[in-house]
Amino acid sequence: MRLLVIEDDPDLNRQLVAALEAAGYAVDRAFDGEEGQFLGDTEPYDAIVLDLGLPKRDGISVLEAWRRAGRTMPVLILTARDRWSEKVQGFDAGADDYVPKPFHMEELLARLRALLRRAAGQATSEFTCGPVRLDARAGRVTVTGAPVRLTSHEYRLLAYLMHQQGRVVSRAEIVEHLYDQDFDRDSNTIEVFVGRLRKKLGVEVIQTVRGLGYMVTAPAAAGAPG
């Protein structure tokens, strides 16, 4: 899953990006409202962490502009402000959740997981497809209860496909959500990662739909062409 952090404090920005990357996300960053709004307008993020007190353009204005433009990605407001009226303003502007500073990083990670679950129509942090289970909270994958060791990119790919279970996902979409903007993107590597995942999982839950992309579906229901 690909996230955007918009926070003007360099140390906090760095800490957030490091924690999110350690949790298995691809993360882009911005330090002011103008840059953050541009990235949110032009890149397909799965969720955004947005500070309200930003230079050049404040977070509320950025969020309102996104929602007016029809941008529906989940947005978590992050701010030192604690007045209830400002929280209401944030929610009315289109925020999905609100975390005041100071905060515990684990709480922020849990709230982001919840936002991503809701966006995928999932009630818990565990995604199941046939014998494959992905625990987004623990960053763990098992097949019939046995743990499967994946690289960070293999895990990101499986996690994104599991979040989109039952839907055909193109290679281009996978690339956009798997890598941050500074990564040297190559859609051909997706085929390599899919091959490795299939071998490690040992079950046919990742279906190739010729000319369209990939779809995760339980083996018993695997009737997709390809």
Summarize the topology.
Blueprint lengths: L1 E5 L3 H13 L3 E5 L2 H10 L4 E5 L7 H10 L6 E5 L4 H10 L3 E4 L4 H15 L6 E4 L2 E4 L4 E4 L2 E3 L3 H12 L7 H8 L9 H14 L4 E4 L3 E4 L10
Helix pairs in contact: 2-3, 6-8
Protein name: Response regulator transcription factor
Keywords: DNA-binding, Phosphoprotein, Transcription, Transcription regulation, Two-component regulatory system
GO molecular function: phosphorelay response regulator activity; transcription cis-regulatory region binding
Describe the structure in your own words.
This protein is of the alpha/beta class and 226 residues long. The chain has 2 domains: 2-120, Rossmann fold; 126-216, Arc Repressor Mutant, subunit A (Orthogonal Bundle). 41% of the residues lie in helices and 21% in strands. The protein contains 8 helices and 11 strands. The strands form 3 sheets. Strands 2-1-3-4-5 form a 5-stranded parallel sheet, sandwiched between helices. It has a 4-stranded antiparallel sheet with strand order 6-7-8-9, with helices on one face. A two-stranded antiparallel ribbon has the order 10-11. The radius of gyration is 18 Å and the shape is elongated. The two termini are 25 Å apart. The modification 4-aspartylphosphate is found at residue 51. Residues 124-218 form the OmpR/PhoB-type domain. GO terms for molecular function: phosphorelay response regulator activity; transcription cis-regulatory region binding.
